User: Fold this.
Amino acid sequence: MRSRGSRRVSFPGQLPGRGRRSADGESTGDRLPEPTSASRAPAARAGSPAEPVRRRDRRGRGPRGPLLPSTLPAYRTRAELFDDLVLDAVEELERTWARQLDGTEFAVEDVPPSNPAPWERGGVPLGRCFPSDAGLPARIVVYRRPLEARAEDRADLAELVHDVVVEQVAHLLGRPPEDVDPGYGEGR
Assistant:
């Protein structure tokens, strides 16, 4: 007579054939069932590329979709929002200085290069001005990460970006920043 504790029970998630006893009393728990033709994976033909297997996620809820629709403001990345701030500052200056800034390129880079220019001492540059030289147009580069690290919020970042762009344009034009933008440094 068997005790109740030694009885094996097959659960729905268990592989078929596990934990059962055959008619003659031998345990079949150590054997795996023979694969059926429906459970066998189709063999890839020689010369044909193997098709990727599409799987659902672990919990069976289907493939994951976008977290935010593209119509929401949070859909845009921080880099894209920073680019918009630089474009706004440049458009504001081009209204007044369009002729002098004609052909000037404005760029955004994440961080400044690790080798500073000889005239840059102390601190991380927030922007750089490269005058036109040998057929290259004048360029003004604004560095995103140092500016984001110094700003407290989005309004502060917009003000800081504006001031850096004004400083670099003033350096390019050889004028004081207050002449380029009378609202420079006032906190707008």
